[in-house]
Amino acid sequence: TSPRCEARPEGNTRVIPLSNEQPARLVAAVHSAVRAVVGILFACHGAAGLFGILGGISPNGGTFQFAYWPGWWAALLGLVGGALVAVGLYTRMTALVCSAMMAYVYVTVHMPHALLPTQSGGETAALFSLIFLLVASIGPGSYAIDTVLQRRRRANDIRRYLDTGDVIGISISD
Predict the structure, then answer these.
(1) N or C: less crowded end of the chain, CB within 10 Å?
(2) How many whole angstroms separate alpha carbon 10 and alpha carbon 105?
(3) The whole model's pTM is what?
């Protein structure tokens, strides 16, 4: 709850919150939506490189040759990693791997042409890298498979504690 002014409202007077805090549900929804959209966009990048859909990798809708290093493997990682991040499964580790991959792409593909992303065409690589690093840092959000699984594990731990008194593995900080 946010602090409210001390004056008591009379008639049509509204109580105005003193802080700029957003409602927790809105923040959770936006957090999860950004994670999901970024994951879907990344998966689309991967699908374009693997299957030539959504425009492919060239003006003619081409694909990477099977097992061609690094393009085909990056596309595969983009498809699988993007899908995992989108649904929020193994989110932190997957987002960290995707962030590292896009940092590698930026340094090896775009940076040799120019240092700044706007000069080298590396805006997408830089943004994906930073957004995935953010997702890896702050986690999947409230609306993710990882969160559902964590809640189930915690509920099972609490049930075990109530049944047996066993406190091993129960964290009071979560």
Answers:
(1) N
(2) 61
(3) 0.77
